[in-house]
Design goal:
Elements (H helix, E strand, L loop, with lengths): L3 E2 L5 E2 L1 H29 L9 H7 L4 E3 L10 E3 L15 E5 L11 H11 L9 E2 L7 E4 L4 H10 L7 E3 L14 E5 L10
Parallel strand pairs: 5-6, 5-9, 7-8
Antiparallel strand pairs: 1-2, 3-4, 7-9
Length: about 200
């Protein structure tokens, strides 16, 4: 179909509608570019390309007050620490180990009870639990880069943040190399098998 002039002097038919649509899109793109450019120049948008995790690594919980010499009020900026889980709960390879018995006989079934608690909290990618060297205090150990996941596991199991620590090298007894987060249930554990 070829375009034809209508009584108003404009183009009629599909060619005219397509041309008008293309012009509208071009104008919208141009306006967007101008507004985006002004956003970068005005300081509305952040000047750094840090990810939230990178920002959290450098953030502290104190407020910074900038001194102003021209009599204006001082600006106050507050930064917060963001703790993010790096994987979905069902993707974290986590294992519970029975490390009871530092002062006597080990309690049977603790690794299984810990694994059930992990699964109830949403951690479905659990590895087979085992016995480990006995310890008095429970801990949550993490592979490099998985501290946030270990903190989330500790919270889910009602363990204190102080229980979270990096996995040592060599790995503790009973820890398979594919484990990302290891829950070591010591004599203080509350995860006991049902009787």
């Amino acid at each position: 179909m070829s375009p034809r002039n209508d009584d108003e002097g404009g183009l009629a038919g599909l060619g005219g509608a397509s041309a008008k649509g293309a012009v509208l899109i071009a104008v919208a793109v141009a306006v967007g570019i101008v507004l985006l450019g002004r956003g970068f120049d005005s300081g509305i948008l952040p000047e750094t390309a840090e990810t939230p995790s990178e920002q959290a690594d450098g953030a502290d919980d104190e407020a910074d007050v900038d001194d102003v010499d021209d009599g204006e009020e001082a600006a106050v900026t507050t930064s917060t620490t963001v703790t993010s889980v790096t994987q979905a709960l069902d993707q974290v390879r986590v294992i519970a180990l029975n490390a009871t018995g530092s002062t006597g006989a080990a309690l049977a079934g603790v690794a299984g009870a810990g694994t059930e608690a992990l699964q109830a909290a949403g951690y479905s990618n659990t590895l087979e639990g085992a016995n480990s060297t006995p310890v008095a205090t429970s801990s949550v150990l993490f592979a490099p880069g998985l501290e946030a996941d270990a903190e989330a596991v500790a919270t889910a199991l009602a363990l204190p943040p102080t229980a979270v620590a990096p996995l040592p090298t060599p790995l503790p007894e009973g820890v398979p190399p594919e484990a990302q987060v290891v829950v070591v249930l010591g004599d203080d554990t509350t995860f006991l098998p049902a009787e």
